[in-house]
Every structure is written in structure tokens, then in C-alpha cells.
Amino acid sequence: MARIYVLVLMGVSGSGKTTIGQSLAAELGWQFVDADDDHPTVNIEKMRRGEPLTDRDRMPWLDRLHTKIQNWIAQQKTTILACSALKGTYRRRLAAGLNTVAWVYLKGSATLLRQRLQQRTAHFMPVALLRSQLDTLEIPKDALVVNIDQPPAALVEQIMQYYGLTAPNR
Fold first, then answer.
1. Which of 16, 31, 54, 65 is least enclosed by beta carbons within 10 angstroms?
2. pLDDT tens digits along 59-83
3. Long-range contacts of 140-146 (CB under 8 A, 24+ apart)
4. Listing from the earlier edge strand, what are the strands of the sheet with 31-34?
5. pLDDT in tens, 93-151
């Protein structure tokens, strides 16, 4: 496998992409980026209203993220990217022509995901959109699959072991 410069944590809302991503980035000394921060305001407002995004809504966002990924790789800036990347076409668009991108699918039951979303207070994604995300989700064939019913530290360790990543201070 080529050296990893970008590790994408993917899954539906509530799967822990940000929590695990921030912990993993801190452990490795890598940059952490949340793809939600790149959504245009119109997409965020649409989700706040409980309207699922369409492929058309997502494409400019995915293209912006692809450009960022290209730049990080060109700069050899190791990055953890939290991004839903629900469909295979989205993942292919994000990593088109790049061989130093790896994937982790954060998998959880609908019940656990719903509980997590109900506990959130400061996020634009309502619980009502969980079903549409689960319906849209295409399980990746080329990703490490980790079950989110474990403590965050265990998930971070599992990801690091699988990809052979070591913290700089270890």
C-alpha cells in the first residue's frame, strides 16, 4: 500500500467521525478537517429543514474536498478527513486519481446512531434525516470497517494498527 496522506473517516451522521477523527489526529500529530465545514450555506439550511441533500447538491462540495485532498497530498500534509462519503460515486470523486487516500467506515446500528443524534445540541443535522442517510449509504468494499459500539480510544487503536500508523511520541 502507498503511504497514506489522507485518511477519510466515513459514515452517516452520528457515527463518530468528528470524535474519532479529532482523537486520531491528536494521537498521530496530523491535521483534522471536518468536511461539514465546507458545505455551502444552502446545503446546511436544507438539512436544517430536514430535507435530504441530492447528488446535485453534493457534487460541488465533493469537488471542493477533492481539490483540498489533492493539495494536502501535494504538500505531504497528513490529514484526517471526517466526511460522510455515503456512496461509492462520492468516494471515487473524492479520491479520483489519488493513491494515498485510505478509508475507514464507522458502522453502527440505527438504534445507536439515533440515540447519538438525539443527544446532540449544536449540529445542523436533525435526527429525521438519519433514515435517508442509511438508505443512501453504500457499504464500502475498500475500507476498514469498525463498529462504533466500542470506546473511542479502542477505535483509534484499531485504525492505527490496521493501517500501521504510529504516534510520533511512541
1. 54
2. 999 999 999 999 999 999 999 999 9
3. 140/10, 140/88, 140/91, 140/103, 140/105, 142/103, 143/10, 143/102, 143/103, 143/104, 143/105, 144/102, 144/103, 144/104, 144/105, 145/104, 145/105, 145/107, 146/104, 146/105, 146/106, 146/107
4. 31-34, 79-82, 6-10, 101-107, 144-147
5. 999 999 899 999 999 887 877 787 667 555 555 566 667 777 888 999 999 999 999 99
Report whether 57 contacts 9 (CB < 8 A): no
Residues 6+ apart with CB under 8 A from 145: 104, 105, 107, 139
Measured CA to CA, the distance from residue 88 to residue 28 in angstroms comes to 27
Query: For 148-170, what is the mean pLDDT?
Result: 90
Helices assigned H by DSSP within the chain: 17-28, 41-48, 55-74, 88-95, 110-119, 130-136, 152-163
Enter the C-alpha cell of residue 127.
435526527
Taking 50 as the threshold, does the pLDDT of residue 1 lie above it? no
Residue 95 sits at φ, ψ, to 5 deg, of -110, 15
Among 3, 59, 68, 62, residue whose Cα is nearest residue 31: 68
| Separation of alpha carbons 142 and 10, rounded Å | 12
What is the value of pTM for the model shown? Answer: 0.86
Q: What would the mean pLDDT of 13-23 be, rounded to a whole number?
A: 89
